[in-house]
Amino acid sequence: MKIIPFEQLAQSDLVVDAIYESTHNGLLSGEPLSKLLPGLGNMGGFRPSGRGEDKNLVVLFSTGEDKDWPDTLDLNTGQFTYYGDNKTPGHELHETQKGGNKILRRVFELLHATKADRAKIPPFFIFKKLATANGSRSVQFKGIAVPGYPGVSTTEDLVAVWKTTERQRFQNYKSLFTVLDIATLPRDWISDILAGNANSDQAPQVWRDWINKGHYTPLKSEPTTIIRSESEQQPNTPLKKSILKAVWSHFDHQEEAEKKRRAFIFEHFAARIFQMHDHRVLVDEITRGVVDGGRDAVGRYLLGLSDDPVYAEFSLEAKCYQPGFNGKSVNRIGVKEVSRLISRIRHRQFGVLITTSVVHKQAYQEVREDRHPIIFITGRDIAEVMINAGYNTVETVTHFLNTEFTL
């Protein structure tokens, strides 16, 4: 991976996925963004450049650590989801210190107006925190983005969503952007952007196509690795680990009779997780109350229009296996469990396997290489689905489990 040292930042181009290092001492003055883009602030998620209502550029910076507002970039589609900066109760939607939500409101208004208005929209530079051995404040450039996404309606690309914190409700923006297919931003164009001329002769054709025609060219990429390692299936932050542990502890039990009963309740929970993951999932039946054999749930996945639906049927199996907590070894999903699910999939059906643990490499590899239509939702996925649904603390997860899945 390309790493640009701090001393070279002022002259450097911006290359997608390259890392731009901070100084070794970790001081705020050695933060790389203000060196890369002179005149930019060195604090906050929104970092605009330029005076007045219409900015020259806006940096959207994400630490990846905000449990309530998880910014996400879909590398397969180029769609970037970014949350605004009204993140505490007691403030009106647009009443924020950095004015980030006002910027979002403005650019989406321009997006939905005329071509001349679209030309006023600044480029959005996407960065995420990525510390290196030489710089704790180092960042990675993820691309240049514009508001909106192809196929998303004007009522869906910027929405105000409600959150509750300590029993207080407040609103924040959820916005959708398209990361454009521009691999390198040359320093000459960056200089023009900083001077207020994003549409200069140095601008790439993809940018011009969007400004002049409203034509999106997303930066899409197909994954080269389709088999997730065990570490990629397990929680990668303390928060996700604590949430998964709360789930596991709720359903785990040593006594065999009680274990069977809790396993059945876990099947209801697993079906709910799949529904929380995608609102087009319809669970028709939880099918059994014993530990092994048969399908745990069956349902349908909605395709097409709501008034002219087409459904793909699915079979779901749920396995509340030991994730490796309390000093115990990880109990992996193996070929036997996966083969049983495959055997129950018929024409125009797919399977879903949900586990608190991980899928063994051999089983994962056989499924992907043989192109079986199986979705794996593992321990990390369960935690992330719950966080995205608003259950982002151990307390809210525990309350949800105790309320909805009583033992």
Q: What does this protein structure show overall?
A:
By secondary structure, the protein is α+β, with helices and mostly antiparallel strands. The protein has two domains: 3-213, PUA domain-like, CATH 2.30.280.20; 230-404, Trna Endonuclease, Chain: A, domain 1, CATH 3.40.1350. The chain contains twelve helices and 17 strands. The protein has helices spanning 33-36, 100-111, 115-118, 187-194, 205-213, 230-233, 238-251, 256-277, 335-343, 361-369, 379-388, 394-404; strands at 3-4, 14-15, 19-20, 46-49, 57-62, 72-74, 79-83, 124-129, 139-147, 158-165, 168-179, 184-185, 281-286, 297-305, 308-319, 349-355, 374-377. Strands 1, 3, 4, 5, 6, 7, 8, 9, 10 and 11 form a ten-stranded mixed beta sheet that branches. Strands 13-14-15-16-17 form a five-stranded mixed beta sheet. A two-stranded antiparallel sheet has the order 2-12. The longest helix is centred in the middle third of the chain and has 22 residues, at 256-277.
